[in-house]
Write a structure and sequence with these properties.
Length: 124
C-alpha cells in the first residue's frame, strides 16, 4: 500500500498559477502510472491528468490541455501538477492517485490508491 499526500493548494486569483505536489511513501511509485483528479462541491470526481511510469505518455482532459501540466520525479517519489491561467471553474479539491499498472489511464476505476486531497480555490 502506498500513502499519497498532496500539497500546494490554496487561494489564488483568476489568471494565477499553482503547483501541486503529491509525495508518495510506503512503496515506490516509479513503476506505476499516476493521475490527478478533482472534485467540486456537488459534482462527481473527474479526471484531470495522468502520466505513465516513465513520463513518456500523458493524458489530459480536453478542457485543460495547454493550461495544466503533469510531471513526475521518480527519484523523489513525487508527482506534480502545474496549473496555469487558473479560472474560477477550476475550484475543487484535487486528488492524487496511483494506478494499478504502469500505463497512463484516464479511467478512475484503474486507480486504487488515493490521497486525501488539497483544496484549490480560484477567485474571480
Amino acid at each position: 500500500q502506498v500513502q499519497l499526500v498532496e500539497s500546494g493548494g490554496g487561494l489564488v486569483q483568476a489568471g494565477g498559477s499553482l503547483r501541486l505536489s503529491c509525495a508518495a511513501s510506503g512503496r515506490t511509485i516509479s513503476t506505476y502510472a499516476m493521475g490527478w483528479f478533482r472534485q467540486a462541491p456537488g459534482k462527481e470526481r473527474e479526471f484531470v491528468a495522468a502520466i505513465s511510469w516513465n513520463s513518456v505518455t500523458t493524458y489530459y482532459t480536453d478542457s485543460l490541455k495547454g493550461r495544466f501540466t503533469i510531471s513526475r520525479d521518480n527519484a523523489k517519489n513525487t508527482v506534480y501538477l502545474q496549473m496555469n491561467s487558473l479560472k474560477p471553474d477550476d475550484t475543487a479539491t484535487y486528488y492524487c492517485a496511483a494506478a494499478r499498472s504502469a500505463a497512463a489511464t484516464m479511467s478512475i476505476y484503474e486507480y486504487d490508491n488515493w490521497g486525501q486531497g488539497t483544496q484549490v480555490t480560484v477567485s474571480s
